[in-house]
Amino acid sequence: MTDVHGAELAVTVIGPDRTGIVADVAGALALLGANLTDSTMTRLRGHFAMTLICTAPASATEVEAALLPLSADGQLLVTVRDVGPDESAHNGGLPYLLSVHGADRLGIVAAVTRVVADAGGNITDLSTRLVGPLYLLVAEVDLPEGVPGELAERLAQVADELGIEVNLRPAGADVL
Amino acid sequence: MNIEGWDITALGAGRVLPVVTAPEPVLSRVGEAVDPTDPQVVALAADLVATMAVSPGCVGLAAPQVGVGMQLFAVDVTNHPKAATVHGAFVLANAVIVEASRWRPGREGCMSVPDLTGDVKRAGRIVVTGELPGSGRKVTITTDAFEARALQHEIDHCNGLLFLDKVSGAHAIYQRKVYL
């Protein structure tokens, strides 16, 4: 989709971390006249990982070409694609927080998030960490009205099966 | 401020016990209520105080953290810069929060989750009831600021909860960079 600001594009950059990646990405986008809107960057076990949305007076192919020098050394993977504006799938639910922790084993995230999805819950933010033998997941979830009680029971069953701890609670957002 | 009827020296010398870390199952079990006059409970209270004292930066230690699923914990926020009301070093059995207000976010860590810290909303003013090990005397403690946070953290341990169960968002967990 194109508006007065140009197409809305999603850019991902992943690879071994080094100083200056964000500056290089933002610099290349600025040269193109692309406006960086929402972005997130973190390091996942030392790997640089950035996802951003920008509006650009250029096509995805042109932006990808402009970012090509970044991946020239074969270290960073850069992708660019068109996205429609505001693709958030808001289910009209209320915000909840989900904490999961326990001994690391295969399938914790798959099992827990499947139960959330089956209940109509939409995960809006998520982070997981493995520190030593401890696996931890914290998710922000929008849950339709009437769902939380039943979901908490289903999560408790899954937690029992996997030998992990699960805690679902309302995310108290204070509006001041 | 002292807790009336509390004399920590009456506990005797405790042993320094190893601290268990998550995902040790005892940390996720609700602790059993204890008889605060039981000599074994008094000995465990002394052990908690001794273990807390030799652990740098440790302001509280609950029985599940030394592998014992019981409702008993030690707290000492003396000289902590974030503390206001301070009751010194003390141990409480079967503690319950009866009033909580002035909720505020704050960063906390835990000896049983040594690699992470997290932002947790806690009451800045609480009233707690519990029993003193040894005499078994019932006490009501009113406190605030950092001592209130420490008490809530330890009472959570006694109920099988870690700060991980209460963090305020998907990105409110941090890799610990500095160890005391």
What would a concise description of this structure say?
Chain A has 176 residues and is an alpha+beta fold. In chain A, 26% of the residues lie in helices and 43% in strands. In chain A, strands 1, 2, 3, 4 and 5 form a five-stranded antiparallel sheet that branches.
Provide an overview of this structure.
- With 176 residues, chain A is α+β, with helices and mostly antiparallel strands.
- Chain A folds into 2 domains: 2-82, Alpha-Beta Plaits; 94-170, Alpha-Beta Plaits, CATH 3.30.70.260.
- Chain A is built from 4 helices and 9 strands; from the N terminus they run E-E-H-E-E-H-E-E-H-E-E-H-E.
- Chain A has helices at residues 21-32, 60-67, 108-118, 148-162; strands at residues 2-3, 6-16, 35-44, 47-56, 77-82, 94-103, 122-131, 134-143, 164-170.
- In chain A, strands 1, 2, 3, 4 and 5 form a 5-stranded antiparallel sheet that branches. In chain A, strands 7-8-6-9 form a 4-stranded antiparallel sheet, covered by helices on one side.
- The longest helix of chain A has 15 residues, at 148-162.
- The radius of gyration of chain A is 20 Å and the shape is globular.
- The two termini of chain A are 36 Å apart.
- The model of chain A has no long low-confidence stretch (mean pLDDT 92).
- Chain B has 180 residues and is α+β, with helices and mostly antiparallel strands.
- Chain B has a single domain (13-175), classed as Alpha-Beta Complex (Peptide Deformylase), CATH 3.90.45.10.
- Chain B is 17% helix and 32% strand.
- Chain B contains 2 helices and 6 strands.
- Chain B has helices spanning 39-54, 145-158, and strands at residues 60-62, 72-75, 90-110, 113-131, 138-144, 173-175.
- In chain B, strands 1, 2, 3, 4, 5 and 6 form a 6-stranded antiparallel sheet that branches.
- In chain B, a hairpin with a 6-residue loop joins strand 4 (113-131) and strand 5.
- The longest helix of chain B has 16 residues, at 39-54.
- Chain B is globular.
- At the A-B interface, strand 6, strand 7, strand 8 and strand 9 of A face strand 4 of B.
